[in-house]
Design a protein that fits this description.
The protein has 15 helices and no strands. By secondary structure, the protein is mainly alpha-helical. The chain has a domain at 104-297: MetI-like fold. α6 runs antiparallel to α12 (244-282). The relative contact order is 0.14.
Length: 340
């Protein structure tokens, strides 16, 4: 019961935060000079040779039709009302269809890849951190530290460019810029051949995101475990005659995991943004290229929805991390209720 009340309190606190995020998401897109009609006007002038004056009446009519003639506050409340009461994130100006349809296919791909890289990256980071801490100043510790160091300092877009160059000019790979080979695009039923083909197309995203994702976790787990191993209760457990494995995995590791679990709340959002960054470079049809094209075309409702969803992931991720931490350690929820 206490755990459910703790979770309910966290959810209620998150509601005003989500509203604030929606305001910032919408305002950031609107703050960019120009709108979709201005973008359309510039493109039409360049393609047809007509002047701005000749197209102005048509542009004004389009602005009224799309609701861009209303005040920013009015546009925001219409957008928010649609999200809250009907799950409608607005209409895409470029694709002339609901935003939910535009991002409906790309969002699950992005979230799925980000979730896989988060889980695998954190597991690898925890294991490398444990190994490095238990082999302090030895070769294994040095190698694990180097792997983590390069994962932190090398930008993901640089890794993407290097792999893209290797695939295109060294390996002559045909698995670039798509999710499936032509023979699998129309195949709707599941098959291991299709799954393997999907992996051959998205492995750069998985490899780069996992490498970057495990880096910080490795360093954090190593430092936490070294601190815990020097704690008094660990010395007491050793004095009782417990084996090295029991001391490590029953007492030291669970306590060293607390900061790692707290940090995971923001890691999912980090993985999503990392996947988007890599997908833009690699040209893989997830949310990344859609964001880039929406910025170019000033497709404001698509951009606002994506920014809101990505920011909301950070809130949901921290909420899940708080829940996992409270589930692991009852002292967390007890301390929360003692404050309240």
């Amino acid at each position: 019961m206490a755990l459910l009340l703790y979770l309910l309190k966290r959810i209620l606190v998150s509601i005003p935060l989500l509203i604030g995020i929606s305001i910032v998401s919408f305002a950031l897109v609107i703050a960019v000079p120009g709108d979709f009609v201005d973008s359309w006007l510039s493109q039409t002038v360049a393609q047809t040779g007509l002047t701005h004056a000749e197209l102005q009446d048509q542009a004004d009519a389009m602005r009224i039709k799309l609701g861009l003639d209303k005040s920013l506050a009015h546009q925001y409340f219409i957008w928010l009302k649609g999200i809250v009461f009907s799950g409608d994130f607005g209409q895409s100006f470029v694709y002339s269809k609901p935003v939910t349809e535009v991002i409906g296919l790309r969002l699950p791909r992005t979230l799925g890849l980000a979730l896989v890289t988060l889980i695998v990256g954190q597991l690898i980071g925890v294991m490398l951190g444990i190994y490095a801490a238990t082999h302090q100043y030895k070769l294994g510790d040095t190698l694990a530290t180097l792997v983590a160091f390069f994962g932190i300092v090398i930008p993901k877009f640089v890794m993407s460019l290097v792999i893209l160059y290797l695939m295109a000019y060294v390996w002559n790979s045909s698995y670039i810029g798509s999710l499936y080979s032509p023979e699998f695009i129309l195949q709707e039923h599941f098959s291991f051949a299709k799954m393997w083909d999907f992996f051959l197309h998205v492995w750069p995203i998985l490899f780069i995101s996992i490498w970057a994702g495990q880096a910080y976790t490795t360093r954090m787990m190593r430092g936490n475990l070294l601190d815990v191993m020097n704690a008094q209760y660990i010395e007491t457990a050793r004095a009782k005659g417990l084996s090295r494995g029991k001391v490590l995995f029953r007492h030291a590791v669970p306590n060293a995991l607390h900061p790692v679990i707290m940090n995971m709340g923001g890691r999912f959002d980090y993985m999503v943004k990392g996947e988007i960054e890599i997908a833009i470079v690699m040209g893989i049809p997830t949310l990344g290229p859609l964001i880039l094209s929406s910025v170019t075309e000033r497709d404001m409702y698509v951009l606002s929805a994506i920014f809101l969803l990505i920011s909301g992931l950070l809130v949901v991720g921290n909420l899940l991390a708080d829940f996992a931490l409270a589930l692991l350690d009852p002292r967390v929820r007890r301390a929360e209720f003692s404050k309240g």
